[in-house]
């Protein structure tokens, strides 16, 4: 007997394909909604430097290289020009103040001194002649006054007699008036002569004083010129070491030419160059420790130079103690310059990643160390070993601290 066969629904016939389609659609939805679409780069972990973030004391210091220099250097400049006749000392010689170093010759200066001596002698002779002439003029006026006083005495006596005779009527009025006029004229002449003598005395005093001052100045100038002759011998200005001497026998040098320098070796200092990043934090009085083969010596910042050259500025450091006689000029030292006190902080080891990111972000590893993800951070102070992390990292996390140039613009580093 025949039996009617029922047809299966279409979905039962294609159940496998429907399940597969459902799984594919679900996977697509998950990929679109939840998958990580950030750009990735695969990297061998052995090629990277990975550091662990830690909580510890942050020592606020920087390390710089400094050079030993004399505490003071005195430069030798030619005070007088001339030809180098003899060199008496060599570079490196120890000198005392006033020791002759070299001798110069200058014929023009010798002629100038001779001319000035002649001018001084001429001025002194003129002063003597003027003083003698003034004394003669004064004597002549005094003689005139004495003679006029005698005449005035005679005329006054004659005038007095004429007055008495005129009252008695013994002489005429014309004769009386004549004697009176003669006496009064002589009296006025006497006053004028005395006033002239007084003014002439004042004038003579001023003139002699002027001539004496002129002669004194010329004699002083003569002393200065003779000092110039003494300056033809170049002498050590201080006690120390003749560090350099740029002279050759027969060489002609001009006034002001720098010919060498003398180092004062009683004390030393250090000169160091510091990155301009620290220019606002480096101040006078900061303490430093300096490492030398003979041991460690403490120092303090004594001078800060304002000029910044090629991203660096210069500081001078002076030693705290006098135990530095074993040092030598030009010797170098690693200096630990303390910028502040130590305090607890989150620390990240220094690395070349900072050149790429400027400390604004880093790659942080996940827990299973299979990948590292880009994360923004805030970095504060730094020393030669660590960065101080202010925000973005926790102790125990791991960070890639080697250079980031090989990662390009990718945001995820997949580790093999």
Description of the molecule:
The chain has 416 residues and is of the alpha+beta class. The protein is built from five helices and 22 strands. It has helices spanning 10-13, 15-34, 107-168, 173-230, 353-357, and strands at residues 40-43, 50-52, 54-58, 61-77, 82-87, 94-95, 100-105, 233-235, 240-245, 252-253, 258-275, 287-292, 295-309, 312-319, 332-338, 343-349, 361-365, 371-376, 378-382, 386-391, 398-400, 412-415. The chain has a six-stranded mixed sheet, with no helix packed on it. A six-stranded antiparallel beta barrel has the order 4-11-14-13-12-15. A four-stranded antiparallel sheet has the order 3-16-20-19, with no helix packed on it. A hairpin with a 2-residue loop joins strand 12 (287-292) and strand 13 (295-309). Helix 3 (107-168) runs antiparallel to helix 4 (173-230).
N→C terminal distance: 71 Å
Structural class: alpha+beta
* Major sheet characteristics: 6 strands, mixed
Instruction: Tell me how many strands there are.
Output: 22
What is the H-and-E element order? HHEEEEEEEHHEEEEEEEEEHEEEEEE
How much strand content do the residues show? 25-35%
Radius of gyration: 52 Å
How much is the average pLDDT? Answer: 82
Low-confidence stretches: none
Tertiary shape: elongated
Strand order of the largest sheet: 1-22-18-17-21-2
Number of helices: 5
Q: What share of the residues lie within helices?
A: 25-40%
């Amino acid at each position: 007997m025949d039996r009617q066969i029922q047809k299966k629904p279409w979905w039962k016939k294609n159940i496998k394909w429907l399940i597969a389609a459902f799984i594919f659609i679900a996977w697509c939805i998950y990929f679109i909604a939840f998958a990580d679409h950030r750009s990735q780069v695969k990297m061998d972990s052995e090629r990277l430097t990975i550091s662990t973030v830690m909580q510890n004391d942050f020592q606020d210091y920087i390390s710089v290289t400094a050079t030993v220099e004399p505490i003071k250097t005195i430069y030798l400049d030619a005070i007088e020009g001339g030809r180098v006749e003899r060199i008496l000392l060599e570079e490196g010689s120890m000198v005392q103040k006033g020791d002759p170093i070299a001798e110069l010759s200058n014929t023009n200066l010798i002629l100038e001194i001779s001319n000035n001596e002649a001018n001084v002698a001429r001025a002194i002779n003129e002063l003597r002649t003027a003083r003698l002439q003034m004394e003669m003029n004064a004597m002549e006026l005094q003689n005139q006054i004495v003679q006029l006083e005698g005449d005035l005495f005679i005329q006054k006596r004659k005038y007095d007699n004429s007055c008495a005779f005129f009252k008695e009527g013994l002489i005429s009025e014309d004769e009386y008036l004549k004697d009176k006029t003669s006496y009064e004229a002589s009296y006025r002449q006497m006053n004028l002569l005395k006033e002239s003598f007084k003014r002439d005395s004042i004038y003579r005093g001023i003139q002699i004083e002027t001539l004496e001052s002129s002669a004194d100045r010329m004699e002083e100038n003569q002393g200065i010129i003779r000092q110039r002759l003494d300056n033809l011998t170049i002498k050590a200005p201080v006690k120390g070491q003749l560090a350099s001497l740029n002279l050759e026998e027969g060489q002609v040098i001009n006034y002001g030419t720098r010919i060498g320098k003398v180092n004062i070796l009683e004390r030393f200092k250090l000169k160091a160059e510091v990155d301009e990043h620290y220019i606002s934090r480096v101040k006078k009085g900061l303490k430093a420790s300096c490492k030398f083969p003979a041991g460690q010596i403490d120092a303090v910042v004594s001078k800060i130079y304002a000029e910044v050259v090629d991203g660096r500025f210069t500081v001078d450091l002076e030693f705290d103690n006098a135990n530095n006689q074993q040092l030598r000029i030009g010797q170098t030292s690693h200096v630990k310059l303390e910028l502040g006190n130590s305090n607890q902080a989150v620390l990240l080891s220094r690395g070349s990643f900072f050149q790429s990111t400027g400390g604004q972000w880093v790659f942080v590893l996940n827990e299973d160390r299979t990948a590292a993800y880009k994360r923004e951070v805030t970095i504060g102070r730094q020393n030669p070993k660590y960065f101080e992390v202010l925000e973005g990292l926790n102790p125990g996390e791991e960070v890639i601290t080697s250079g980031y140039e090989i990662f390009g613009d990718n945001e995820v580093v997949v580790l093999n």
